Amino acid sequence: MLTIVDCIALSGLSEGEVEAIAEHEHVPPIVAAELGCCLESDPSGQRLIAAFIRDDIAHARAHGAARHVAELAGVLQQYMNHHRGLYMGPGSYRVPESYVVPARYHH
Fold this sequence. Notes:
This protein is mainly α.
């Protein structure tokens, strides 16, 4: 039997990326892993995953969840580092400086 850890590993995404998709789409992590796997196979899907994470950051910021903003910014940065060629040039999905949270909010 497959576990959620197995499904996340098979998706090609990190646990944080799967959690961000689950948060954005309001679905269980197992569904988010499947959705993420499908999206990850196509450049437009990869852009959509980045947009989901950015939306999650905006939502967390709007609700004053500074630690969650920091966590999600790290997830977005990791995703961007893994997909460097996808986001070059105008309209890129780089992590804006405004998403950087002061160190005092980090564990």
